[in-house]
What we know:
By secondary structure, the protein is mostly helical. The protein has a single domain (7-265), classed as Farnesyl Diphosphate Synthase (Orthogonal Bundle), CATH 1.10.600. It contains 13 helices and no strands. Helix 3 packs antiparallel against helix 5 (88-107).
Amino acid sequence: MSSAAVEHPARIGALLRACHPEPAAAVTALAAAMAAGAGRGVLGAVLTTGAVAAGQLSIGWSNDLIDRRRDADAGRTDKPLAAAELTVRRITAATRWAVACCVLLSAACGVAAATAHLTAVAAGWAYNLRLKATVWSWLPYAVAFALLPAFVTLALPGRPWPAPDVLGAGALLGTAAHFANVLPDLAADRAAGIRGLPQRLGRRASAAVAVLAATAAALLLAPGWPVLAVTAPAALAVLLAPPRSRVPFLGVIAAAAVALAVLLAGGGLR
């Protein structure tokens, strides 16, 4: 087998690892579930899922591009760009393609829906460029997650906005996702001078914020003890997960998935 044939899948694997695959896949899966549950149809669900996937790829890759020197200085071998598994030119090209696909696929869903989704993606980029190192680090997540269901419903006939409780739950879920997602990197972030709100509050307080926000989001979407009983194990996983673990973020997404399933079963997005 030629070296080029071996290099190609290795390069794809490095690109996938550089896009922050767990958050990207989780957000894309939630969008796909909402699109299907809202009755977008096969084409609508494909467009929605593709647009969200492209947007998440652009956010993940741009994050590694912007942080490449900091990651290299910190010896982050888990970062393909910092570990020289990818070149800046290659990941820049991939990011541009992701942005182009995101814009085109979003536009195919209609002007109102595209505006909502591209605003959400812009919030993710604002986090990467500046807000991640400020006390407002949670805000892009809150905005982006609140606008995700709006992207789905604004593509429906009549272009309806989601109910206020859905928007509120999205904002709470985004806040929870932010706090849970940065928990594994708190020490490295502090050493690099990143002082977002979780880094200022510390691990225990940030884990508590993630649990409370995720629980509040679940109860807004599907009030009642049954949902709380199902989401409790996920909340416990957030609190007990060891440092460097990605379990907290996945626990928050699992809690949201349960509440979302109940919401969709009751036709809450239609």
